[in-house]
Amino acid sequence: MSIYEKCYSFKRAEEAIKMDMYPYFTPIQEVYGNKVKVNGKEMIMVGSNNYLGLLDHPEVMKAAQAAVDKYGVATCGSRFLNGTLDIHVKLEERLSGFMKKEAALTFSTGFQTNQGVISTLVGKGESVITDKMDHASIIDACRLSYGDVYKFAHNDLNDLERVLSSLEKETGKLIVVDGVFSMEGDLANLPGIVELKKKYDCVLMVDDAHGIGVMGDHGRGTAEHFGVENESDLIMGTFSKSLAALGGFIVGEKKAISYIKHHARSLIFSASITPASVATVLATLDIIEREPERRENLWKITQKMKSGFQNMGYDTGPTETPIIPVMIGDDMKAFMLWRFLRDEGIFTNPVIYPAVPHGQALIRTSYSATHSEEELDIVLKGFEKCGKMLGVLK
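Request: output the structure for the sequence above.
Response:
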């Protein structure tokens, strides 16, 4: 049997395209504020992770352009060799200060950050314990480690303790959880997890890709929100959400970061972050610290949209964040609702298995601090109209 046999038998994407029901890899022709152009049609974007609305901020764009003028468009090398610019070092110092940790290390993507940190830290005879709903990058990183991998039921502290109590006391243990779970928008129970990590002598790593910039009084994320920053040993973040760029980072104890820096294959064997992305993050960090009102407005918008969906009769699941899922259940109904919304000029993301469990398909919406009242009202009216057309609302 040819290794290509699976490729030839894969028909789902082609069939969906023929039915005009294919929602993925959509080419966006223009972006202006919270609106995009798709196939020549203007749409309101409620499917982006641009939580603070900084992707087209004039100050951010100016910083990115200045970096290109000074350093060029790429480094053409890894951090280990010729790819470390002075602004990479400046950014890491800035991140460690912002996050109140001893040291920081940047990677070229968030996916590579999790991949490098987890596979480097967890060796033979050691264990990594993850929430069953953790991001795919965590799952793949665990596969690359040489340690034993254990999963506990989503946000279930009793099940986490069951796993931890079954492990040898002397075993090195790393607990890895999302701070904000990216599909349903709920939060990890970090206070409870911290208690267990202390009881069973573990290291705790929090993937806060969707929490940095959003959660906490200063935007430092879910650990700040719960008041457990000191007990969260490693905090990972990405630049592709609130920080409006591309890349990822890990912060923590200096000795741990140094070890990762000199052993993580996804860092050593990848080209470093582009100058424009580095400059973008430096600029967005300044704005985040200077303009807390962006975060405050984001939470007002979040409450408006969550209440609006619930008042219509939609189930918004367990969300506690600007990620607001509209729970549908059936895959085809989710795709049909996406299609109806598209026709109304609303850009959303339908999510099915394996991103969510079987039978729990949803429309994932997410919001920016810069969405206008008019845009939000159009979105709510569109969801109400389309929900009634589909029969999921009365």
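The longest strand covers residues 323-329.
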